From TrEMBL, chain A:
Keywords: Hydrolase, Metal-binding, Pyrimidine biosynthesis, Zinc. It comes from Nocardioides deserti. The gene is pyrC. Zn(2+) 2 binds at residues 151, 178, 231. Pathway: Pyrimidine metabolism; UMP biosynthesis via de novo pathway; (S)-dihydroorotate from bicarbonate: step 3/3. It comes from the Bacteria. NCBIfam families: PRK09357.1-1, pyrC_multi. Catalyzes the reversible cyclization of carbamoyl aspartate to dihydroorotate. This is Dihydroorotase.
From TrEMBL, chain B:
Pfam families: OTCace, OTCace_N. Heterododecamer (2C3:3R2) of six catalytic PyrB chains organized as two trimers (C3), and six regulatory PyrI chains organized as three dimers (R2). Its EC number is 2.1.3.2. HAMAP family: Asp_carb_tr (MF_00001). Residues 3-147 form the Aspartate/ornithine carbamoyltransferase carbamoyl-P binding domain. L-aspartate binds at residues 83, 173, 227. Catalyzes the condensation of carbamoyl phosphate and aspartate to form carbamoyl aspartate and inorganic phosphate, the committed step in the de novo pyrimidine nucleotide biosynthesis pathway. The gene is pyrB. This is Aspartate carbamoyltransferase. It comes from Nocardioides deserti. GO terms for molecular function: aspartate carbamoyltransferase activity. Carbamoyl phosphate binds at residues 55-56, 105, 135, 138, 268-269.
């Protein structure tokens, strides 16, 4: 019989302190003054309880780039960040475009046991954007894939995108689009603007993202499918999604923590630790993303956790890889940019980082309110402390965090996956 | 002056004038039978060229040698960096050899900046052209040349002089550095290009812009033509090379509209018949060959000021 946990004096979603009894994988009791002789007591005074976080956008790199991250190390980082489920992107080697590969990733996640791993299936064979992968086979596999994405590459062919949107309706899937018009971003290195012109780095115009999002919203509307937009990064994109939603288009969107806090000014260092796809944008874009996340235009915060080995960042900008770590800092950045800024309360954080991503990914066992009978997926978070980010402390095999030395609020104290702690006292169990 | 020369923006007006005045003193050396000074004896200058370059590399080599520095030439093109050894490892190797200054040409914008700020090397870093970013010593030699022909009083002052920079500004590191430096020295710079070859945000640069070459050049004191690289010709930036030449090339007909004192410049290598016609390049107005001579003096001044310290006259 597994251990039960009695979480004392915890503030569920920032509410009045209460107790939670986690037993047999579910939230067994909720209320002040609970007692359970057989349970291990966790004093959670001053801590906030949130439903286990769900990431719609994680790169675990396995199979293929086990030097950068493995399912084991990536899910450890996820657990330390308060996540109980992650969606593993398809751009592995081999690409997750068959039932075999997605089942392998799914099984590796089960064996690791730090959080649930939901593989994302590639939309097109080999991410080549030429013909549909066997989406149905991936949906019917043990991995039960519901989210399909060529992330890292855009499904830029309009006919192919239309067919994908239509086809996944058969199994209630969703296409998560990496919106990047390829011709407008050939050789692109950073946000196109005054700074890219000055630095001599090829610009990445906002319109390259916005044009694809606008087209896809129209396509989704036309064929009556649901669409998810990955890593929205510009003010214009937020407005396009806002207008599409107002028209009734079944579209959801995500924003990444780094796009909520960092700006393109950092490219002036030429340090590729700040090189990411889509690129860091302007302060005005950051403000628009925050506003969009606050008003629900943006449904989800997703990390786009993208580990890279040191040598792929310790070089000149143009030669460096795109991407940055995100799992272990996401909640702190949301606190800093949204909660402490008064734009979102803890219930809002639960919606954006747990309920909504679970809904979009059709993940039944996650993203449920912490009520009696719900799966005991819980994160205990201390918003009162501040910490300085030390890359060496990360569970990730990679060190490419842009937040090195930055002081951020909050710390994950404990994470429970179906009542079993994956993190206790801030450390992996 | 700062320890590195990475961007023309690193130079204050005082810094730039000091470089140009020092270059003027060193320039006189070129006319002497013995062209060598002992100023950098025992110091090592590494020319680290990751991109093909003839004139810039030779110019830096001559400059360092005339100051008695030891020179190591390292051309990575086709060797280690093509695949394998990284910029970092190359830099560490040079550091181990005891380089005092690294002159770097690289295809990636910001590579010299990375060298200077990554902690890989302790030496001074001189940007000899990085990607589509900057080429500050080219701007210095252009300013020096302008100053010799159009200068007002002390070396370096270009107050009120009008310079037109014409061509592929978008991809030109020469244009970026010149726009910054010439403005610092008081010149009024106009960038002339088709709209497709002007960078986004150019309106915030300290320059004017125009799409109309014929409207600009009659008022200019100097016209600097930029090379149009072959790979741009098929890049869709303009319909055909012929149309480009007609609208933005400097030929004899356009040269006739220049003021008598106006000079014609080109950083080289030229594409004769494309951005500049042969009769213009070879005309009396052309200072293109002189630019090369001045390049050595300016680079001597830069190396001297970054590595030396005392005034050049006192070391002989």
């Amino acid at each position: 019989m597994s251990t039960s946990y009695l979480v004392k004096n915890v503030s569920v979603l920032g509410g009045e302190p209460t107790d939670l009894l986690l037993r047999d994988g579910v939230v067994a009791e909720v209320g002040a003054g609970l007692e359970a002789d057989d349970a291990e007591v966790v004093d959670a005074t001053g801590l906030v309880a949130l439903p286990g976080l769900v990431d719609l956008h994680t790169h675990l790199r396995e199979p293929g780039r086990e030097d950068a991250e493995t399912v084991e190390s990536g899910t450890q980082a996820a657990a330390l960040g308060g996540f109980t489920a992650v969606h593993a992107m398809a751009n592995t080697e081999p690409v997750a475009d068959t039932a075999g590969v997605v089942e392998q990733v799914w099984r590796l996640g089960r064996e690791a046991g730090h959080c649930d791993v939901y593989p994302v299936g590639a939309v097109t064979v080999g991410l080549q954007g030429e013909r549909l992968a066997e989406l149905g086979a991936m949906a019917d596999s043990a991995a039960r894939v519901r989210v399909f994405s060529d992330d890292g590459k855009c499904v830029s062919d309009a006919v192919l995108m239309r067919r994908a949107l239509e086809y996944v309706k058969a199994f209630d899937g969703v296409v998560a689009q990496h919106a990047q018009e390829p011709r407008l971003t050939e050789g692109a290195q950073m946000n196109e603007g005054e700074l890219s012109g000055r630095l001599g780095l090829t610009g990445w115009p906002a319109v390259a993202e916005e044009a694809v999002i606008a087209r896809d919203c129209l396509l989704a509307e036309h064929v009556g499918s649901r669409l998810h937009v990955c890593h929205v990064s510009t003010a214009g994109s937020v407005q396009i999604v806002r207008e599409a939603k107002a028209r009734g288009v079944d579209v959801t969107a995500e924003a990444c923590p780094h796009h909520l806090i960092l700006t393109d000014e950092l490219a002036a260092t030429y340090d590729p630790i700040y090189k990411v796809n889509p690129p860091l944008r302007t302060r005005a874009d950051v403000e628009a993303l925050r506003a969009g996340l606050a008003d629900g235009t943006i449904d989800v915060v997703a990390t786009d956790h993208a580990p890279h080995p040191h040598e792929d960042k310790d070089c000149e900008w143009a030669a460096a890889a795109f991407g940055m770590l995100g799992l272990e800092t996401a909640l702190s950045i949301v606190q800093e940019t949204m909660v402490d800024a008064g734009l979102l309360d803890w219930a809002g954080v639960a919606e954006r980082m747990s309920y909504a991503p679970a809904r979009i990914g059709r993940v039944a066992d996650h993203g449920q309110p912490l009520e009696v009978g719900a799966p005991a997926n819980v994160v205990l978070y201390d918003p009162s402390v501040r910490r300085t980010v030390d890359p060496a402390q990360s569970a990730s095999l990679s060190r490419n965090t842009p937040y090195r030395g930055m002081e951020l609020p909050g710390r994950v104290v404990a994470t429970f996956l179906r009542g079993r702690p994956t993190v206790l006292a801030g450390a992996l169990v | 002056m700062k320890r590195h020369l990475l961007s023309a923006a690193d130079l204050s007006r005082d810094d730039a004038e000091l470089v140009l005045q020092t270059a003027a003193e060193l320039r006189s050396l070129a006319d002497r039978p013995i062209k060598k000074l002992p100023a950098l004896r025992g110091r090592t200058v590494v020319n680290l060229f990751f991109e093909d370059s003839t004139r810039t590399r030779i110019s830096f080599e001559a400059a360092a040698k005339r100051l008695s520095a030891d020179v190591i030439n390292f051309s990575a093109k086709g060797s280690s960096l093509s695949k394998g050894e990284s910029l970092k490892d190359t830099a560490l190797t040079l550091e181990a050899m005891g380089a005092d200054a690294v002159v770097v040409r690289h295809g990636a914008s910001g590579a010299p900046h990375r060298l200077a700020h990554s902690g890989w090397v302790r030496s001074s870093v001189v940007n000899a052209g990085d990607g589509t970013h900057e080429h500050p010593t080219q701007a210095l030699l252009d300013a020096f040349t302008l100053s010799r022909h159009l200068g007002r009083g002390k070396a370096g002052s270009l107050d009120g002089r009008r310079v037109a920079i014409v061509g592929d500004v978008l991809h030109s590191r020469v244009a970026r550095s010149n726009a910054l430096l010439l403005a610092t020295l008081g010149a009024e710079v106009t960038l002339v290009a088709p709209p497709t070859l002007l960078p986004v945000g150019v309106d915030s640069w300290p320059v004017e812009t125009s799409y109309d070459l014929d409207a600009v050049i009659p008022k200019a004191d100097a016209v600097m033509m930029l090379r149009v690289q072959r790979e741009r010709m098929n890049g869709g930036f303009f319909p055909t090379p012929r149309e480009y030449s007609r609208r933005y090339g400097l030929d004899g007909r356009r040269m006739a509209t220049l003021q008598d004192h106006t000079i014609v410049m080109h950083p080289g290598p030229m594409v004769r018949g494309m951005e500049i016609s042969a009769d213009v390049a070879d005309s009396d107005r052309s200072v293109i060959v002189e630019q090369v001579t001045n390049g050595v003096a300016v680079r001597m001044a830069v190396l001297y000021l970054l590595l030396g310290g005392a005034q050049p006259g006192g070391e002989e």
